Amino acid sequence: MEPGDGLTSMAEPGHLRIEGVAKRFRQAMVLDDITLTVGRGEFVSLLGPSGCGKTTLLRILAGLLAPDQGRVLLGGQDLAGLAPHRRNVGVVFQNYALFPHLTVAENVAFGLRARRRPKDSIAPRVDELLALVQLGHLAGRSVAQLSGGQQQRVAIARALAVSPDLVLLDEPLSALDRKLRETMQVELRSLLRQLGMTAIFVTHDQEEALALSDRIAVMNAGLIEQLATPQVIYDRPTTPFVLDFVGQATVLHGEVVEEKSTSVTVRTAYGVIEAPGHMLRGSRAMVAIRPERIVLGAPPTPAWTGVSLPIAARTFLGSRCLLHGAMQGQDRATVELSADVATTTGEAIAIAWRTDNALLYPAPPA
Amino acid sequence: MSRFGIFWLSVPATLACLLLFALPLSLLLVESFHGRDGWSLTGYTSFFGSAYAWSVVLRTVRLATLATAICLIVGYPAAVALAWARGWLQSVLVACLLLPLSLSVIVKAFGWTVLLRANGVINLALQGMGLTSAPIRLLFTETGLLIGITNIFLPFMVLPLFASIRQLDPRLAEAGATLGGGPIYCFLRVVLPLTMPGIIAGGTLVFSLSIAAYVIPTLLMGDAYQTLPTTIATAFLYLQDPQRGSVAGVVLLVMSLLVVVASVRLGRRSEAA
């Protein structure tokens, strides 16, 4: 569902609009003019390295911090000056922040009691939520007796029990081991979809963001660098930062030696290649290719281009393997191949890719 | 380390406790059953048969309860401030809390007599601000005594509270707020129950110190106002009646033990919950 496509209305509950939000701490700019619209039922990830402002934005949405500039609208209502307990925004905290003195059921009931829901409606609602996260049998347990994954489920049930218009998830899976994290990703996604819940998910884990999101906002230094679907973020990163942060790539720097109608010719340290797009002749360019777009050998047709480069190491991944180039300067190479392709490290190999699968950027200043 | 090794580490402290506390207290206990005419229970029967003794016990308990309650009410916000302060502010606050502990109780109690007397700093200030026309009586009143006791024992409330509040994850209160709990609701349902160990520890310390206080009531109230500790001193020093003093001592000891037992049980329960 795309924002502003007419299917979602601003006044609809769960429709979130962030307009020009900025926040400073002392002199440091933590958020610099963030604008983002999230449709009802949409799952949007804020992806970025630590310090990029994603958690600050989350705290502003929850009402735990006030923005210096800009405003936040939820279901058409301006949230400015509204304390956290007066917003209908659920939060799943990093490390869960479960109440250690309460049982599982009491944790889930906390929001219902705080909102003075009718007494006889609380127990059925708690049962319903615990059933939803498959923890019905642990209702009477102390939360300290639960495993990490179970605590995670309690935190989700607690946040969802009050039927929030928006749920914020702050790296909720980062404390779990890899296998459990993957299971929980699937569960969390289908649970939120089933409930039609609008969700903002903060993470620094690009795989998690790619797996879960309807759209990803890649954040860097207080700004959204790119806002798009996971497929577009991966295939068409608009900036070198997004390219670098999401997935791996072979990156070659060079000088534009010829301008053509839809492509340019770039001379790199490993050969002359074609790259799609326009840049002035003589300028420094950066060409990037995703590892799985690359094949071994010379370019088979004129629509392909390629270089020859030395291989330093091979990483075995099971069905696939990665070759790492022995490169100089800012150049780097990662090639993904089927694991049964025999290669020897130390020697130069020819690699090729379809020209229109490559990405062209002005080279960032060294 | 083996259990046996741990046992040996505790030997010096155990010996010191036995010699310095258990032995004199046993002697006190023996003395309380030893009247002028040999072994008897007359000490206890006359103590518990005396309306005056009961009023002293009740007064002591009331004084300690009030002091504990005031220390808790004054100390809790102070402990929160201490726990939330950062950098130099926290150092200054900790120093303010700990420095008075290095002063002798006698010095502090004398200090309060200077502050509380009719021409003392407090009365001069009140009159200077035009709040009172004549000096109000503070010294030798229970109000003055409570002011002195709570001031002197306040650090013993704040320190355990501070330790307990500092351990509290600030995100728990935030979680409560995002779930729809207002500040008061979150304080009562999240912060207060989770800092209960600090409240119990601080309360036990201040209560025990208050029922056993001797110097402060003596200096701020004089002889006319008797608490259990002052009756013990009076019995031994002026009345030369060691049995009477010992009985009062045993009563005080039993009260202290009850407080400690109650605090341990309360602490267990709040931990288990």
Q: Can you offer a commentary on this structure?
A:
- The complex is a heterodimer of chains A (366) and B (273).
- Chain A is an alpha+beta fold and 366 residues long.
- Chain A is 23% helix and 34% strand.
- A six-stranded mixed beta sheet of chain A has the order 6-7-8-3-9-10, with helices on both faces. A five-stranded antiparallel beta sheet of chain A has the order 13-12-11-14-20, with no helix packed on it.
- In chain A, a hairpin with a 2-residue loop joins strand 1 and strand 2.
- The radius of gyration of chain A is 24 Å and the shape is elongated.
- Residues 1-8 of chain A have low confidence and may be disordered.
- Chain B is built from 14 helices and two strands; from the N terminus they run ααββαααααααααααα.
- The longest helix of chain B is centred in the N-terminal third of the chain and has 34 residues, at 51-84.
- By secondary structure, chain B is mainly alpha-helical.
- In chain B, strands 1-2 form a two-stranded antiparallel ribbon.
- Chains A and B meet through strand 6 and helix 2 of A and helix 9 and helix 10 of B.
State the main characteristics.
heterodimer; A: 366 residues; alpha+beta; six-stranded mixed sheet; five-stranded antiparallel sheet; 34% strand; elongated; disordered N terminus; B: 273 residues; mainly alpha; two-stranded antiparallel sheet; 14 helices
